[in-house]
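Re: export button greyed out
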Amino acid sequence: MALLEVENLQTHFRTPDGVNRAVDGVSFHVNAGETVAIVGESGCGKSVTSMSILRLIPEPPGKIAGAIRFEGRDLLKLSDREMRDIRGNEISMIFQEPMTSLNPVLTVGRQIGETLRLHQGLSRQQAEEKAVEMLTLVGIPEPRRRVREYPHQLSGGMRQRVMIAIALACNPKLLIADEPTTALDVTIQAQILELMRDLKHRVGAAIVLITHDLGVVAEVAERVIVMYAGKKVEEAAVGPLFNNPKHPYTQGLLGSMPKLGSSLHGDETRLAEIPGLVPSLKAKIPGCVFASRCPHATDLCRQVAPALEEKAPGHVAACHYATKEGAIAA
Amino acid sequence: MFAYVVRRVLATIPVMALVALFVFSLLYIAPGDPAAVIAGDQATPQDVERIRASLGLDRPYLVRFGAWVWGILNGDMGTSIFTNLPVTTMIAQRIEPTLSLMVLTLILAVSIAVPMGVLAAWKQGTLIDRAVMGFAVLGFSVPVFVVGYLLAYVFALELDWLPVQGYTAFSNGFFPWLENLILPSVALGGVYIALIARITRATMLEVLQQDYIRTARAKGAGQSSILFLHALKNAAVPIVTVIGIGIALLIGGAVVTESVFAIPGLGRLTVDAILRRDYPVIQGVVLLFSFVYVLVNLLIDLAYTLFDPRIRY
Amino acid sequence: MASATVLSPAQAAPPPGVAAAAPMPDVLPPVKPKKGFIGFIRRNPTMAIGGFLLLLMVLVAIFAPLLWTTDPTALAPARRTREPSAMYWFGTDMLGRDVYSRVLYGARVSLIVGFSVAILSSIIGLTIGMISGYIRLADSIIMRIMDGLMSIPPILLAIALMALTRGSVQNVIIAITIAEIPRVSRLVRGVVLSLREQPYVEAAVAAGTRTPMIIWRHILPNTLAPITVQATYICAAAMITEAILSFIGAGTPPIIPSWGNIMAEGRALWQVKPYIVFFPAVFLSITVLAVNLLGDGLRDALDPRMAKRL
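Workaround output, generated via the alternate export path:
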């Protein structure tokens, strides 16, 4: 049994001018100890998917449907109380903005300690001791001094380390990292990724990594899910996905990624871009969600939504024309 | 920190001096002969002369201002034209009821309004939120004395639960004191509650949108901890600021409330002084209230560090 | 690509061999955006209600003589303190005057005071705020003076001013206006200072646009929205202050039927004849409520970002 099974997840929002179908029928699973990346452009529903797993979507105006099974239990059926016991304890989360994700008026120690006091019933003193330990673990120098400090006294990289310390304090089985490095400097990015990889091995947690950065994906993920306009359009292990992408959208994404050492060859190295914009999620799209931007789209694509099909072992894609043996016949 | 406090305290001195200058000058920027205006329409020339002399109107303006300020610094606010008592004595006699009323109202209003605003923000868009917002707009719209009469009519005259009017000194016991102050406090508190509830809701709504609230939820923190620990502490600075500014409403409202409930306080003194055109008394009361207002807001400014560690002086 | 089956638009079912995704059910009921006049009212209910009530009060004030009123100042000692009846809808006061007529005419005083103070303090505040936001030397002096004025609670300032002048509607308007000016000036100054930092204003300055032109084109239009909202709140506050001043005997002369005066006269008798206080109180509250609702609605409509907050 997989650690996490998401089945037909739909997360919709009520807005004054229509229902926004941010996530519309996404299924995937995460095995224990595995690192799965969810990639896509901003607005494709990847963050909403991750927030839905922990039920952090305000309801109303949002509504989550489908099933999210964690160790066999459907999280959507749990009471608020039961859900709180899971958050920060068995499943924890790291967010994109380290500058704003920590509470400015509480000390770092108190914020790390809060998780421990909530889930492990530690006293204030024990929690602070453990917080010092956690700060050491995530590589913050002078942890004894730092626990008493406030977030504004720390740099961005340090704050993200604190976020990681908070997330890992209770040894979660699943860590959801929503763009954990996007807001950081490139050098700090590498350090944080390294730290996550290192700690993952130590703690043994599975990771769901939400990112738009394919470089990060290639470095840390084992399996990749590609999302577009609220739907999963492709899923495969990292190697096959990068070497043999089936879905035109994935091909577009990879084409728009700069490759090292290819920039000196003039015209042909121009980054490919995907023309057009992500469609509005407020209107129902009858056919394939990518048809409006797809270079290969036909009337069939515009009328019939393609099902996810296994195009190669362990490699699924939702495209009428993605051939089973290779890329699109073009 | 200490240097900052000293600087802030010193900075209020020019403000207070300016207030004193305004209050003093009001008498002389008004059109016509101040002595005649104060004396009223039925005054004899002798009355006008007497007032002119008692106000020292025969001396040059700056000399008078200097003497007046010097007097205030020495605890002398002049003499009432009507009773011939020193203004400070009259104020001292009337200060307890007003202080009681305002402190009680402050406590009552803050302890009702802040939870109300938090609740409304938490339940944004629901019936509860609308009820709170509806109450707030009513609080701004129904004048203090209307609320006062309404409360007195229902709870004192019809139900006979509380005394209609009057004041009992604190020295006569806590409960008799409280009994007389409940209705005036509620009446006076209405607009203040509306103001604080509204700013609390607005600030909380903004804070609840912040990323660190999402982090707290993701940690498994409970609703009350999110609202009162994570959010309210971040919302404290604007709320406390408005509580301080709102004291102006309490001061203005106290004048009216004391009239409605026949409380012998400074507000009542002001009204009587107006009717008698007893200008030294009016000056004294306005000056006192303004100084208190400035000082309270100074203290609040200095208290910001308690709520937000990012604020450093 | 050549192998693609081309479907005619009319064809609904997928052709054989094409795997169609199962359609997703609706999780939430559909939302229909409202348009037109009804839509406007549904989106801005506060503005609609406030505007309607205020319009009603304005009509009452204008057409008071036609609304079955009698002379509001006519004394009739023979029919003192009558309870409300078919003859005297709101009863009569201690001098036998018809409370209904007095209350209707009282709307005139309140509205005139409210509107005049709102307009005057906006214009003066706008001017002072502009000067303060543009002339550095004037700024520090003006703002010190405003600080001083704002340190005196507004009602007390108005009381102190009124204590020195003979009661008249004009003096009440002046006194309340003086008390309200600092707030408007500060608001305008704040807006001006933040606008001057805006890239498009800086660009206009860099391009050599003259200051009066910048004020006319960029600054003034952007201050209008906040100042309009502020003006409605000032109008509401001024009506309350007028009533308070009259109520404590420092407002309009007793001969003028203003709501504050009617209540002041009913004060002595309020325990036995509460209706004399009741009717003007209700009218005053409704009028102020109408203006406040209008202000809230305006603020929501003019500043969508603020709408969610306050």
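The radius of gyration of chain A is 21 Å. The button fix ships in the next patch.
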